[in-house]
Write a structure and sequence with these properties.
- The structure holds two protein chains of two kinds.
- Chain A is an alpha+beta fold.
- Among the domains of chain A are: 4-237, PmbA/TldD fold (2-Layer Sandwich); 311-319 and 329-426, no CATH class.
- Chain A has seven helices and 27 strands.
- In chain A, a hairpin with a 5-residue loop joins strand 23 and strand 24.
- In chain A, helix 1 (26-41) crosses helix 2 (121-153) and helix 3 runs parallel beside helix 4 (262-282).
- Chain A is globular and about 75 Å long.
- The relative contact order of chain A is 0.14.
- Chain B is α+β, with helices and mostly antiparallel strands.
- Chain B is 21% helix and 34% strand.
- Chain B has eight helices and 25 strands.
- In chain B, strands 2, 3, 4, 5, 6, 7 and 8 form a seven-stranded mixed sheet that branches.
- The chains are: A alpha+beta, B alpha+beta.
- Chains A and B meet through helix 1, strand 3, helix 2 and helix 3 of A and helix 1, strand 3 and helix 2 of B.
Amino acid sequence: MRSCIFFLIGFLATGWGMAATLPDNMYFRAMKDEMQRNLKQLRLKGHPNPYYISYRLEHGKRLNIAANMGALVPAVYDPRDKGSITATAFVSVGSDKQDGLGFSDGERSSGLPDNSVWPSYYAIRQGLWQLTDEAYLKAVDLYEKKMAYKQKKNIQDPLPSVMPSTPAQVVQLEEPSVWPDVERLKTEVEQISALGKSLPFVESFVANLYIAQWNIYYLNSRGAFTQHAYWVFRFSIEALFRQTDGKQSNKSTVMWLPDVSVSEMARARQYAQDFLDRIEQAHGAKSGTAYTGPVLLKPKAAARMLDESVLKDLVNTKPLLLAYTDNDKNAGKLYQKRSVRVSTNLLSIYDRPLTRSFEGIPLARFMPVDDEGVAAQNLTLIANGFVQDFPLTQRPLNKQHRSNGHAALSRIYGPREELTNVFVEPKEQWTDAQMEEKLRDHCRELGLEYGYILHDEDPAGDLGIERIYTADGRKETILNLQWDGNFFTQRDLRSVLAVGGKKELVDNYSDVVRIVPSILLEEAELVPQEHKPHRQPFVHRPR
Amino acid sequence: MKKIFLALLTVFGSLPFSFAQENCRVQDERPLKLMSAELKRSIKTFKKLNPPVYYLSYTYEDEGIQKVSVKQDAASTYHNQHNCLTVLARAGSPKMDNTRPLKGEDNYNRTFVKTVCGENPLALDTTAFRLDMWLVTQQIAETAQEEFSRVQTNSRTTAIRQDDADDFVVPPVSRYCHTQEKQSYDLKKIEQMLLRASALARGKSFVQNSYFSFQVRQGHRYFADSSGTQIKTPFAYARLSYSLQNQLEDGTGLHRFNSYDITEESQLPSEEKLLADVKQSLNELKQLSVAPEADPITVPAILKNRAMAVFVHEILGHRLEGHRQKLDSFGRTFTSKVGQLITAPFITIVDDATLPSFNGKPLRGFYEYDDEGVKVQPVTLVENGILRGFLMSSSPIKGFPVSNGHGRAESGKFPVARMGNTRLIATQTVPYETLEKQLLQEIRSQHKPYGYIIEDLSGGFTNDSTNQPQVFKLQPDFVYRLYPDGRREVVRGVDIVGTPLVSFGAVVAAADDYAIFNGTCGAESGSVPVSGIAPSVLLKSLEVEKTAKSESRPPILPAPYALARGEESK
């Protein structure tokens, strides 16, 4: 289904000279024709002309199948439908030396134009026409405000707004794929959801299978283009269940699949059964009390810790010029710490946009070319605890600056430095059992009767918090306990005791995909959660 | 500000059942059997609670949707098959229950019903269906109890109600079963026809955007309540429609819309008819694009038949919805006017949702039983200009203690009194040509520079809250000025404004050219299909004002499709 034919067409620095190698399809024809028309004709008297335009089209064909307690629930997407295209247009006015990029006067996401277009030559052009017009007016507005702001603040920037890199031209065509047998999947999803009927205190058990095939088309006026595709196979469970004191809990879990073959769906079924087992263990489990001590963060919890402690500081490398605060608080804070030790030496962090899959699972942030048309590069972000590199765009940080192909187009701020597929690699390959043993060893040293294993990203755990006893390794689910409300910091990253060898794909559908192992933290605080019991149902659940 | 919107441009068309009659048995219908069994199991316990949950109803709809849409040279399809169960719970007693409006609070966001949806009704899993019913019933019963407590407190801490009618009258027990085969449509053929119609907009500089669509919604509705009512009725809505849009440099938005409501494929317009209509609409849009802008003025006017049907719906109909008459926050323009003359004596207005069609054309406001399980009845609202009654749901008002089958709601909403097929009947009529002559006479006798002919209304709103003026505003789509010398001129940017009593008192003559509008009406119980039937009427005076314009400029370059030449897509 996902075998690929690769055509690396090469790198050219000529503008429209690449037309001969541009893929001949409806998407590129529409983008090219509309781009040429706008570059030539889009003018607002007395204002600067557009000098750079980029277009990105994401055509998704999607299917979702969901069932609750053995009965299908309405599908949001139907495979018979042709799907729609999400279009993005970016326009710059001025010149590379001085344009409106990297500036904001406080505009937020409200009022963004509809960017959904239909799959045909004229429908795509129609969508791009409207988006280009809006983007041009916005670019003119920002450019002029930026000039006024720089004058007011007497900002003399020796660097140009953009230092163009070589335009990349990469096409990775997929063999035509056959959509899976929907009727079989419906039956399987229905059957998986029926597992929920086996426990009398489970009131809802929704199994949801989401399949999407995304085709990406990118073109910019410097001559860069790319076309590639990827699949998403997501299986999730959402359960509503009642604890013995009547309290209702709503919990969900997600797994990513390489495909939806019979064997993978069998794995999904087992995943659902394991989740149901956790619910059964949680029913009637005891409540926890305040705890301070070592905790083992399973991959989902570890991903949250990494997000908060380090990943958020590795993006948005170059600060924006903000007219409303004078200070970009969201800019990555690690840029000034190149070669500085920021974490334990037990792990290294990489960003790999060129990696297509993990354990057979297609990665959603695979990206041969970034949103500025620059060939993406794999990066070593943190090596054995030391900061090595950052995602960079064509917005220069210094005179030696070169983009490493990590621009992601924000509809509000234009291209910004972003991460793609983040891999966290351990120095040593500890197994799950060894990680638990290390947790118990540390508890023993501290004289603790037990430690905790945190499974979920959600800090309030009705299912996600497990107690492990120091003496015998026995485990039990603990209710009504949550992580302390403080966010993780870089200090936590330096108090890592061990990193597991088995990595897990945590989130394959957000801005940043993370492939993360378990992490043993020297110390974390867990506090009792406010607990509100609830009356039992008026009428017992039907049998 | 409370507004009631009529969205004529939205969704589907109508309908169906020229031979509505019982043709199945409720005891053979599995959803009804399952719902009745769960109701029986629950209500015994619920009635003993404190406060008691004294009434429950279940509405189950299975619906299939098919849609083909065309923009420029692109076609898109949409398919969906689903079913939804809506549970309503009443706590307290019919005298005072959880559904009573709270004074001084936001009543729009209160919850009286809860819905759960599934797919594929034929493979309905009995256990899953029972679990859904049970879970949703528990949840909404708890909510009903909480809401009842709020009602009790609110009734003690706020001023007494002017109309102290009960909150609910339990509907009489009904059993009715009507089933209907699904209609099939050749969507591929329709898609090709729409693509050819869309191609007519190609190369037209005055068309910024166009949209062509065909949609079918059909299925069955099952209703059961704790009194023992069991009803199954079919529904089917099919509509082919299109809209053409342009925006002028000054921000004025222009559009033309047309729709064809059908009940079977053979009623679709022929391709020749559709293409001719699209050409006509394109011509009208072109005229509008170069038309002068209207100025505020009060002049005599003709409201053409479809426009008048919308006018009646919007200006009078919503104010005759029964449940509003006991809301102290409602303007109650007509509450105390029963038995009084409110419009010209040659006008009678009836809401008759039992009519499936009019002059051979389907009416989408047709239904057999309302969403509270009450058989629909024709209601005379105005007789020879005198107000006679109101549209009633199961929420009684002073002098009108029972429902006349107008408790309606979109799936998942709480039913209130709504219109069905609202029909204006004129007992004195003239041919339309004569009406235009009468308009000319009015213009001359009033020494006005011109009068207006309102061809079509696209929608509008009316304020009905006491803390707002009782005004309405309607948006005409296509309007002519008629000059004293008989010359016509298309104008743009017109809104109609006014107040209900003055506007209805201004009707002086009617034509015999009855026409239908089929639309979707939005109010607090959601979007429901409605129809209006009316002849053209002459109004002694009508106030118009400038319509709101967009602050955005139109795109700098012309639309790519407007520049396209030739027939083939690239």
